[in-house]
Each structure stands twice: as structure tokens, then as C-alpha cells.
Amino acid sequence: MKLLPIILAGGGGTRLWPLSRGYYPKQFLSVSGDKTLLQDTLTRMQMADDTSGRALDVAAPMIVCNEEHRFMVGEQARQIGCALHSIVLEPVGRNTAPAFTCAALLAAAGGEDPLLLMMPADQLIQDVEGFRTAVAAGATLAEDGALVTFGVVPDKPETGYGYIQLGDSLTADGPASNVIAAFKEKPDLATATEYLANGAYRWNAGIFLMRASVWLAAIGEFNPAMLGACEASVSSAAQDGEFVRLDKDAFEACPSDSIDYAVMEPVVDKDGWRGGVVSLDVGWSDVGSWSSIWEVSDRDEAGNVSRGDVHLESSQNNVVIAEHRLVATLGCEDLVIVETPDAVMVAAKDRAQDVKKIVEWLADQGRDERLFHRRVYRPWGSYEGVDSGDRFQVKRIIVNPGASLSLQMHHHRAEHWIVVNGTATVTCGDKEFLLSENESTYIPIGATHRLENPGTIPCELIEVQSGSYLGEDDIVRFEDKYNRA
């Protein structure tokens, strides 16, 4: 039976601020190795053979994300050469159960009934072969009609995760598989310590595996209103290039709930349904805080994790990340220090879970640092503010090979473009011409213009804007290959 990975990529990751932002959350970040968390998830099941020799017939993955992240999802898949089944766009957030239900409906179109492996896009798994072996064990249960989840073998009394209590064993060999006895809410420290000592409890990883038809039957029994709203949203969905746009009105009317609450917990006590849990001992982390970054990263002899231009003097057990300038420490211990071009955060490592309070303060103040980096990503590439003042600002713009900005004009600003790397095809009014390295051009106020990269390497340019108003909303688009408003 074919296995279709369903990757939910709509998370926010506020506890990893200032690296993670609302419009660039943690699934798009690299926390271990060269690939981002999303890219690791996309490749996790590629060429998937478990250690017993059973080949898994794995299809190209389907990604469910929100509108704001759609081009970053597509670009990160393109960077690693990963073909996709589709990118499904949620018009609003409705938690994991509606997202999974819409994915199941799309997967079952045409009468197919694949196994669906639902994985969050923002988790780290270090033992990929062990994970594939666990998935193969879960596939055996799922093919027989079970709703399968995966539970991480705990190595400490963690209070930040929900737990799954193990029931009777379902397998004689291979990765341990058990009946689900109960789901447990996030415990206090004393209870978590009891769970660890007992040995019959697992962290709830939020990873699920079941046949599409089994999930749709379950959601229809336990939450028929959700199924009805998702069916309406999928039936009226629109195809937009590589994107599937769910119908907004129908999806907004959908109840919001998680997979656990909507189906998995009711299944435990309901006759006629079978739930199973496969144990994972594969170096799993949800990378949910800076303390977890410290735990999963390589450390120096003093226990420090450092990236970028960092000097550590008589310092121990810190996380120090420098993106833009030199960061030096002296006599520091158990700190998190993160420097980006527009923000610096210093926190006690044992307060890492409270970083979200800083993000909440930024929201209360209406500050953009909670949403954007100084580098802003667009479907054609990115731009970064370099300097600004009264009636001017300077940007560094990178246009990907083959990409182009929209055909547009501005009412209030003129622009100077200087190409510093690569080549650019420029449209200005009724003229079209090529700019190479060290060449420049001027775009007057009100002129219709566009910039394209015809080359095979990124085109980098410096843009100097001048005028009475320099906001990003001073754009009138006439043509846009990315279908933006």
C-alpha cells in the first residue's frame, strides 16, 4: 500500500525568537546540519527501507501551510530537489484536525486509499533509519485498520509534553507497539517523575499514521460538523499553479480542534475502533525552546553552543548565536544570547520557555520585530534594509535565477538600481534592457517597471529609494507571475 507523507507546516515557533518570527517560523530554520527542519521532514521518508528489509512505497509529500508561507515552502522544497504531491493552503488556522481532514480528502480523491503519515514540519529526528523502521511497524497496524500514533521514550521528567499511557503489547518483535491505554495532559514535575519511573508512558510526538478512509470514517463519527466543513472547503478548492487553495468561507466555518482531541482520545474508549502507539527512541525533539537547541546541538568542551562570529571567554553551558556582528562573552554561564541584524535577546537558559512573553510584549507594542526579520522573503527572492532616513532608504535585493518582480509602479517614490552580482533584465516604461555587474539605472516616480533575473545565479542589487512616502504598500501591480494582489 502506498504511503503518503502529510506535512503540517503552519506553526509559529514564538519561543525561538528572535530567529523565529511570525512570517519566518522555526520550520524554515536550520538547527542541526545544513537542512532546515522542513527540509529534514521532507526527506525523512525518501528511499525508506526499514531494517527488516521491507520497502515502503512512499509517494511525494503533501504540505499543508498558510498563505503567508506558501512561497517559502515551495522554495525550500526546490532547493533540495524534492518533488511535491501538492501544497495545500489554509485560509485561516483551525488546528491540526481540519488540516489533516482536508489532506485526507484530497489524498482519497479518485478512489485511492493510501496510508497517511502526518508529521509536523518543525521536529528534529536524529536517527532517521530508526524512525523509518518505526513507521514500517506502524504501517502494519494501520493497514489493518488501526489509528496509529507515535510515542517518544522519555529520558527525563518533562512537564512540557502530553503523555501516552501504554496498554497491552501488539508486537512480539521490532519496535514496541502497544494498545493506547490513555492520553495524559501535561503533568506537574512530580507526576512526570512518576511517569518516567513507571516506564509505561511515552511523550506524545504528534505524529500519526492511518489509512485515509479510516481517518475520514473516524472524523465523521466523532466530529461530523468538522468533516462537513472540510468536504465543502475541498469541493470548492481552487488550483493556483502548484497550490491548492481551500475555500475560505467553508474553512472558516470549520470547528477548530487537534487530532488528539477530535479523534484519538475518543477512540480509546469506543468499541469498534482500535488505537495503537509505536514507541520512538530516535533522538526526537520538538525544538520548542532555546534549551532544547542546546540539548540537540554539538557543544564545545565547556558545554557551549555557538554559531557565527562568537568569542567565548571563561564561559560555560551557553547558547550564543551571532548573525550580524561579533558577540563576545566573559564569565557567562547558562545563558542564551541571540544576535540578529534588528534584535538582541539575552535570557537565562532555564527561562527559555518564557521567551514567548517577549513576543507577547512586542505584539502589545505593535512592533514588527515579532513578525519580520530585517531580511524579508518574497516569492522571487528577498530584500534587506541597509539604511534609511528622511525621504530615502537603501535595500539589498536578491532575485533568484529565473524569477521576476511584478510589473508595477509607485506613486510616491523613485528608485535607483545598481547591480553588484549577476545580470538583470529591466523593463522601464516602453524600454527593456539588460544590466550587468557594476551597471545601474533610474526608475522615475510613476514609471511602469519590472526586474527579472535571466541568469543561472542569483542577481544581487542595491536599491536606493527616494520620495515622500516609502512604504511597501505604495505598489500598483499590473502583472504578477505569483498571483499576488
Helical fraction equals: 10-25%
Strand content: 25-35%
The pLDDT mean sits at: 93
CATH architecture annotation name of the largest domain = Alpha-Beta Complex
CATH topology of the largest domain: Spore Coat Polysaccharide Biosynthesis Protein SpsA, Chain A
Counting helices, strands and paired strands, the structural category is alpha/beta
Instruction: Show unreliable segments.
Output: 49-53
CATH superfamily placement of the largest domain: Spore Coat Polysaccharide Biosynthesis Protein SpsA, Chain A
Task: Kindly report the oligomeric state of this protein.
Answer: single chain
Shape category: globular
The Cα radius of gyration reads 25 Å
Tally of discrete structural domains: 3
Q: How would you characterize the largest beta sheet?
A: 6 strands, antiparallel
Distance between the termini: 42 Å
Strand order of the largest sheet: 21-22-23-30-25-28
Short account of what is shown:
A six-stranded antiparallel β-sheet has the order 21-22-23-30-25-28, with no helix packed on it. A five-stranded mixed barrel has the order 7-10-8-9-13, surrounded by four helices. It has 485 residues and is an alpha/beta fold.
